From TrEMBL, chain A:
First-listed, main subcellular location of the protein, grouped into a coarse class: membrane
One GO process term, biological-process aspect: cytochrome complex assembly
GO MF entry, a single one: heme transmembrane transporter activity
Name this polypeptide is given: Heme exporter protein C
Described purpose of this protein according to its UniProt entry: Required for the export of heme to the periplasm for the biogenesis of c-type cytochromes.
InterPro entries cross-referenced by the UniProt entry: Cyt_c_assembly (IPR002541), Cyt_c_biogenesis_CcmC (IPR003557), Cyt_c_biogenesis_CcsA/CcmC (IPR045062)
PANTHER family membership: CYTOCHROME B_B6 PROTEIN-RELATED (PTHR30071:SF1), HEME EXPORTER PROTEIN C (PTHR30071)
Cellular compartments annotated: Cell inner membrane; Membrane
One GO cellular component term: plasma membrane
Top-rank taxon, per record: Bacteria
TrEMBL record, chain B:
Species: Aquimixticola soesokkakensis
Family note: Belongs to the CcmB/CycW/HelB family.
Keyword Hydrolase: no
Compartments in which it is found: Cell inner membrane
Name recorded for this polypeptide: Heme exporter protein B
Alphabetized UniProt keyword annotations: Cell inner membrane, Cell membrane, Cytochrome c-type biogenesis, Membrane, Transmembrane, Transmembrane helix, Transport
GO biological process, one term: cytochrome complex assembly
Gene this chain is encoded by: ccmB
PANTHER family: CYTOCHROME C BIOGENESIS B-RELATED, HEME EXPORTER PROTEIN B
Membrane topology recorded in Swiss-Prot or TrEMBL: Multi-pass membrane protein
Function: Required for the export of heme to the periplasm for the biogenesis of c-type cytochromes.
A molecular-function term among this protein's GO annotations: heme transmembrane transporter activity
Alphabetized Pfam families for the sequence: CcmB (PF03379)
Transmembrane segments: 12-35, 47-64, 95-119, 125-150, 157-175, 187-213
Length: 244, 218
């Protein structure tokens, strides 16, 4: 029987991602193009918000990925701490900048939409504030990776930071909720909610979300492969220095 | 453990700079704020609780990198790691020493400096109470940041980047209590939340800090 841990062997990982990555990348591009074109050109304008509402085909998926990227990093960090698979630590490292950019995209598109609709680029609303805090956590996590030279120590310390940071991020989320009541609307794309947006908007949003998720997977795989290659190069250079 | 505490306190008091610096920084920030926002009594009174809390938080941050860095450099941290005392206890004692030398003086000084900001008389006891509850948590969370950056050459800036997001919940609840207290509103909810955050941090964060130190010493 093949254990799932086998996939984490760096050589095997390089093997299967070599074939899987182009497929995922093409799928991501296709889904994104389909979802965004569908959303931008083939859905009716909102009767009050006009065409501005269409920015949500980027805003909502980016925000979802921004949160789930941290979740993925948390799982990868746990796998590193418990099983010490190097690929797992590198995947967490690879996911962080992608998640940070998604956070920025969500904040920026939200600000662009907020200006005409709420009359302000920024409001200290709980959701907005939580995202800003999430951005700070990404920043700290990436900075810690960059600051430590020894790769294993860096992986250990960032994993611990990721665990502790998760607890504090959730704590901050609720503290912020307590601190200020918001302008932001509630979730409108949930699977289980009674009331969602109309199907005309929901299907393109779903496709765009799938596109963003695939894009995230493709980017993380690509960056993990880069990290593995960098690690191999480093090992080769070290060996050469020892020989000469 | 008590000996370690006394040793840390003595080092902090005698090494010069460490002990008074946080307090002086607190004073300067509070003095600078009226220059920045203007001397109107009403406006100062409105922002006084928040300014006191943020200033206390920054002053606390200032001396965090000294918690482990000096001991790491001269090797006494290695000795402490091999001593018959769990690392968690070392971290807790270090946090306590840090609190006694920064958090406690800040708490005592805050009502006095509140006068400079026209802090509402009704809010003054709440400043004292919330800082007394909150600053130990700030010290303990600080040990985590200090532990993560202990082996680094220029860890100071990174330390603030790592620790400041962790301070957000404490700051929110602490300043909220004072704000409500100043307006005579009910303060029990944020006060209990502040206590919960503080107690949780004191109980759990030493384990994370100790784990980080063990990795750094490996």
């Amino acid at each position: 029987m093949v254990s799932i841990w086998g996939w984490a062997n760096p050589r095997k990982f390089m093997g299967w991602t070599d074939t899987a990555l182009p497929v995922i990348a093409v799928l991501a591009a296709g889904m994104l193009a389909l979802g965004l074109v569908w959303g931008f050109f083939f859905t009716p304008d909102d009767y009050r918000q006009g065409a501005t509402v269409k920015i949500f085909y980027i805003h909502v998926p980016a925000a979802m990925i921004a949160i789930n990227a941290w979740g993925m990093m948390l799982v990868a960090s746990l796998v590193w701490i418990i099983r010490r698979h190097h690929v797992s630590a590198l995947a967490a490292k690879a996911a962080a900048p992608v998640g940070m950019v998604m956070t920025l995209v969500a904040l920026a598109t939200g600000a662009i939409w907020g200006q005409p609709m709420w009359g302000t680029y920024w409001e200290w609303d709980p959701r907005l504030t939580s995202f800003l805090i999430l951005f700070l956590f990404y920043l700290g996590y990436i900075a810690l990776w960059e600051a430590i030279e020894d790769p294993d120590t860096a992986a250990d310390l960032t994993s611990v930071l990721c665990l502790v940071g998760s607890v504090f991020a959730i704590l901050s989320r609720y503290a912020v909720l307590f601190w200020n009541q918001g302008l932001h609307q509630g979730a409108s794309l949930s699977m289980d909610a009674e009331e969602n947006v109309a199907d005309v908007f929901w299907y393109p949003a779903l496709v765009a979300t799938a596109g963003f998720a695939l894009l995230f997977v493709a980017l993380v795989l690509l960056r993990t492969r880069t990290e593995i290659r960098a690690r191999r190069l480093h090992a080769l250079e070290t060996r050469e220095r020892m020989v000469s | 453990m008590i000996r370690l505490l006394i040793r840390d306190l003595r080092l902090a008091l005698r090494s010069g700079g460490g002990f008074g610096l946080g307090l002086a920084f607190f004073l300067i920030v509070v003095v600078l704020v009226p220059f920045g926002v203007g001397p109107e009594t009403g406006r100062l009174q409105a922002i006084a609780p928040g300014v006191l809390w943020v200033a206390a938080l920054l002053a606390c941050l200032l001396s965090l990198d000294r918690i482990f860095a000096l001991d790491f450099e001269d090797g006494s941290l290695d000795l402490l790691a091999t001593a018959p005392m769990p690392m968690e206890a070392v971290v807790a004692v270090k946090a306590l020493a840090h609190w006694l030398t920064t958090g406690l003086p800040l708490t005592v000084a805050a009502p006095v400096l509140g006068v400079l900001l026209h802090l509402d008389a009704a809010a003054t006891p709440w400043v004292l109470i919330t800082l007394a509850i909150g600053t130990p948590a700030l010290s303990v969370m600080g040990t985590f940041g200090a532990a993560l950056t202990v082996g680094l050459k220029r860890g100071g800036l990174l330390l603030s980047l790592l620790v400041l997001p962790l301070y957000i919940p404490t700051l929110i609840f602490g300043a909220e209590v004072v704000r409500r207290g100043a307006q005579g509103l009910e303060v029990a909810t944020p006060l209990l939340m502040l206590g919960a955050v503080s107690a949780g941090a004191i109980a759990l964060v030493p384990f994370a800090s100790a784990a980080a130190i063990r990795i750094a010493l490996k």
